[in-house]
Each structure stands twice: as C-alpha cells, then as structure tokens.
Design goal:
394 residues, mainly alpha, transmembrane helix, olfactory receptor activity, Odorant receptor, transducer
Length: 394
C-alpha cells in the first residue's frame, strides 16, 4: 500500500474511491493481509449460500406452477448473486495481477510539472470527469438499491407493528431458508435486512469491478494521448535531441502496449463473466417489464438498464483506448519528420508500423473489449428476448 500512496494524489483519488467500494466484499487489492484474505473467502461462502437459497426459491416456485414471467424477477436475482460469487472468486485470484497493473501504471504516470500546459488541462479533464461521473453513479446506485429493497420491509413493519393489520411477510425476492421466518416479524425483518445487505454488496462487486477496469483503461488512454503529444513535440527538437527522444519514446510506447496486454490478463476473465451472465439477466428483467407494466416491473427495467450501462461504458473505454493507440501513427505522421535525419525517419517508421495494428483489451481469444463486442451482445440479447416474448405471447 505504501507504493500506491507515493503516487500523485490525482492518480490515487479515483482508484481509492472504487477500491473502497470493493472492500465492502472483503477484497483488499492493494493491501496484503492474511486475515483480510480469509475474510474474503468467508464473504464468498455467505454469498454462495445466499445464491443457493434464492436458486432453491426459483425451483420451488416452478414446482408450484409458476411460469417464466412469474419467476423472471426471482431468477434474475439468483443469476446476479451467482455472478457476484464468481466475480468474487476471480477478483480474489487476480488480486496480485490487478495490484501490479495499478502500480506499473502509476510508475508511468506523469505529474503536472512533467507536462506542457495544454496537456495539463487535458490530463485534469480526463481524470476529474471520470471521477465526477463515478461519484454520480455511486450515489444513483445507492438511491436505486434503497428504493428497490427498503419500501417492502418498511411497509410490512409499519402495517404489522404500528397499524396492527394483517400483512404477508414477503421478501424482495423469493428464497428458501432452512427455518420458517414468515410467521415472526422480528425474524422476518432480520432475514430481510441480511439478504438486502448481501444484495447491496453484490451490487457493488457487479458494478465497481467494471468501474475499476474502466478507470485503468481511462488512465492508460491518457498515457497514450500524452505520448502522442510527446512524439509531435520531439520532431520540433534539433536533430540530435530528436533521435534520442524518439528512441526513448519507442520504448515507452512498447511499455504502454504491454500494459494493455497486462490489463487484459488482469480483467479479461472478469469481463467474460459479465458477458456470460449479461444476456440472461437482462432478458429476464426485460421480460418482467415487458409483460407486466407495474411499478415492480419498472424497477426491474431500471436494474436491466444499470447492467446495460456498465457493460456499455466498459466497451466504450476499451474502444477509446484502442483508438488512442491507433492515433499515434497519425499524430507522428503530421509532424515534420521529413526534415529529420535518416535515423529519425527510421524511428518514426517503427512507431507508425507498431501503431497501425489495432490493439484490443482481450477478454478471450475470440472476444475483446470494444463497441463491436457490445453491438454483438446487444443483437444476441435482443434476439433472445424477442424469441421468449413471442413464445410467451403465442
């Protein structure tokens, strides 16, 4: 953790904010501590037990004759809980890869005194804008989760304890427990709050792991933009300085490309887990909203939109990072390389050749983080949703 705190506060700010949210699931990425590591596995066991309880609840409702639309909300919740459990495992296993990636990126970070005035403004815009929207998303997520989970238990407690009226003890999502809790208001409230807390923390892990990936891609994109400016400026130097600077920038460019590979290794499996659960989860939320136009279905539609937004932003930042690397060739070609020595021209040619090949953050050998992948996923999801609703309508 000491290495991380030595970096510029602007570099730390966004990471600290996101990592603090992930810590709610006992995942301490920047801190090495045996007992905290044990707590993360305890948290995983709790999440798996909760996911199993909700899964048995879906099975029981099917046994009671519920159709696909009636179980769609409960099934979506069960899928999200299993998704959160798999993401916990993945983050725990890749914790060192993520930590090393952040530290290596921090070592390449450029402070304001190392930049030209116009690049200082660009740097501040990249960092502060992302941090601002991260905080807005955090507040919006908290508000949404509260509106989704709190009203039901508040309504039940008020009706039963204050108004002394008969009311069924119903949880936000149907689940099966090894004991009865629907005949005791205090036990019901305890179970409801415990389940809501688990869902609340899973909401963090399902969204803020992608935000952590987005932050890394945004920062790495900024480093590529700064490199573009350095390459252009190096061609304005005298011949000797140009050759020396270009050779250093070639190595720096190679290091940034390697950071893209490392970023894919650290987060590729995480993104794949999101893709695996994305279509099914948003389809079931969409079905509930499509068939039943009610306040409950509107909440489900909002949940689907949150998931959609997280996947989109991840693909968007991945595409921007790829484009920033591709633009290096254009930026250096716009410089006055034709006035330089033969050695300088060779250096320029090497950088152009390296930059002309698109480098993507790879999730697997057949999928990468880009807007093209997002489009494919949307097409698949829409086809799946259309098929299920057509079958149901028929």
């Amino acid at each position: 953790m000491t290495e991380f705190t030595n970096f510029e506060p602007m570099f730390q700010e966004t990471y600290k904010f996101i990592l603090d949210r992930i810590k709610s699931n006992q995942i301490y990425i920047m801190d090495d501590n045996f007992w905290w590591g044990c707590l993360s596995w305890v948290k995983l066991v709790v999440n798996i037990l909760a996911a199993t309880s909700h899964t048995f609840g879906v099975v029981e409702r099917i046994g009671q004759g519920a159709d696909l639309v009636q179980i769609s909300t409960d099934l979506s919740a069960a899928l999200v809980m299993w998704q959160g459990s798999f993401l916990l495992i993945q983050l725990r296993l890749n914790r060192k890869l993520i930590k090393n990636l952040i530290l290596r990126m921090g070592s390449k970070w450029r402070t304001d005194d190392q930049l030209r005035p116009h690049m200082i403004a660009v740097k501040h815009e990249y960092v502060t804008t992302f941090f601002k929207w991260t905080k807005v998303f955090f507040r919006s997520l908290n508000f949404y989760v509260f509106l989704y989970l709190a009203p039901r238990v508040i309504y039940t407690v008020v009706k039963h304890l204050i108004l002394k009226e008969s009311v069924p003890f119903v949880t936000a999502f149907y689940m099966v427990m090894p004991f009865r809790f629907d005949d005791n208001i205090f036990l019901y409230t305890l179970v409801y709050l415990a389940d809501s807390l688990i869902l609340y923390h899973i909401g963090y892990i399902v969204t803020f792991d992608l935000l952590l990936m987005n932050a890394a891609m945004n920062y790495l994109r900024l480093l590529f933009v700064i490199l573009q400016d350095d390459l252009q400026h190096s061609l304005d130097e005298d011949v000797d300085n140009s050759e020396e600077k270009l050779k250093k920038l070639i190595q720096h460019h190679q290091n940034l490309v390697q950071l893209m590979v490392d970023l894919g290794n650290a987060f590729g499996a995480t993104f794949l887990i999101h893709l695996a659960f994305f279509s099914a989860t948003i389809c079931f939320f969409g079905i509930a909203a499509r068939i039943h136009c009610s306040p409950e279905s509107i909440k489900n539609l909002c949940a689907g939109l949150i998931i959609l937004f997280c996947i989109y932003t991840c693909c968007y930042y991945g595409q921007n990072l790829t484009d920033a690397n591709l633009h290096i060739a254009q930026k250096i070609y716009e410089g006055k390389w034709y006035l330089k020595s033969q050695e300088c021209k060779k250096c320029v040619l090497i950088i152009i050749i390296r930059s002309q090949k698109a480098q993507y953050i790879k999730s697997t050998s057949f999928a990468h983080v880009s807007l093209e992948t997002f489009t494919k996923i949307l097409n698949t999801t829409w086809s799946f949703l259309s098929l299920i609703t057509s079958v149901y309508d028929a």
